[in-house]
Specification:
alpha/beta, six-stranded mixed beta sheet, 5 helices, 6 strands, 17% strand
């Protein structure tokens, strides 16, 4: 299930250049979910193609994973203004699209606080749950879930970078 080309389910449509659809293998066992598209993603219409994308791809490559091995998506398909976190209402508007992307997967990796909150409802510190396998229910089925740091958090935080690399190692075991 994909949004209409002129989706207007929330206010994010007002400032977008492109709807950012999933990238990678549509049949992958592993899905990586970010918070929302940034400026580069909005321009190119692909998730994780900017600085955060480079960090994510480096962590994946270290674990022997390429973009074509996984599906990469976001909780919302349009860029929030000023790269702010998506609101609960914006994430709810995109939720049917996200659930259709997650259904039938072996592992979902949530990158960052907003993605983890949207997928689990968890409001605490990410450091308390990072890289601890759990499950989420998607369309009535239990799927393994791994919360971890967003690549942007890795720019200045070495422990976040290590955790992201460890998460990709875990993902590799699912492939």
């Amino acid at each position: 299930m994909r949004p209409d080309a002129d989706c207007r389910l929330c206010g994010l449509c007002e400032g977008r250049t492109n709807i950012v659809l999933p990238d990678g293998d549509p049949g992958a066992r592993v899905v990586i979910v970010g918070e929302g598209p940034g400026e580069n993603e909005d321009i190119l219409g692909r998730p994780f193609v900017g600085r955060s994308g480079k960090i994510l791809e480096d962590a994946m490559a270290s674990a022997g994973i390429s973009r074509s091995d996984v599906l990469i998506t976001n909780t919302v398909k349009c860029r929030p203004p000023g790269n702010r976190d998506p609101t609960a209402e914006e994430m709810a508007a995109c939720r049917p699209f996200l659930e259709s992307e997650l259904s039938g997967r072996a592992l979902v990796i949530g990158l960052g606080r907003s993605a983890v909150r949207d997928l689990t409802g968890y409001e605490g510190k990410l450091s308390d749950i990072a890289n601890r396998l759990d499950t989420i229910t998607v369309m009535g089925e239990e799927i393994d879930f791994l919360p971890t740091y967003h690549p942007a958090a890795c720019i200045y935080n070495k422990s976040a970078r290590s955790a992201l690399s460890e998460a990709m190692e875990i993902a590799g075991r699912y492939l």
